[in-house]
Amino acid sequence: MSIISAGELKRRGVSALSPALAEDDEAMITVRGKCQYVVIKAERYARLREAELDHALHETRADYAAGRIADDSVTGHLSRIRAHV
User: Fold this and answer.
1) Which pTM value belongs to this model?
2) Which has the closest alpha carbon to 26: 49, 42, 8, 7?
3) Which of 25, 26, 45, 49 has a C-alpha 20 to 30 A away from that of 18?
4) Does 29 lie in the same domain as 6?
5) Residues 37-47: pLDDT tens digits?
């Protein structure tokens, strides 16, 4: 992973990212020598976001199959909440 200091990013702006991202899909931005941020290419972000959404859908389907999701009316939902209060 390429490393760019915050000072370099401040001086060079976005042009500091191009060479770093040409080597890898991600670049670390350091502030006072410590990693504070990671920049990734838009294509990689889209893939990560899609994987995250797929995982959330899988968890939701598993919860529904296990009966951990109620699918009734608003009135039924409020009644269930009031019964637990």
Assistant:
1) 0.68
2) 42
3) 49
4) yes
5) 999 999 999 99
Coil, helix or strand for 39?
Answer: strand
Domain count, the chain: 2
More confident residue, 69 or 13: 13
Residue whose tokens read 């009031």: 82
CA–CA gap between residue 25 and residue 13 (Å, rounded): 18
Do the beta carbons of residue 27 and residue 3 sit within 8 Å? yes
The secondary structure of residue 66, as a DSSP letter, is T
- Domain of residue 60 covers 43-84
Residues 2/27, Cβ–Cβ less than 8 Å: yes
Structure tokens at 34: 């410590």
- Looking at the structure, do residues 19 and 49 belong to the same domain, yes or no? no
| One domain for residues 27 and 57 | no
Judge whether 33 and 8 are in contact, CB under 8 Å: no
- The structure tokens listed for 50 are 């899609």
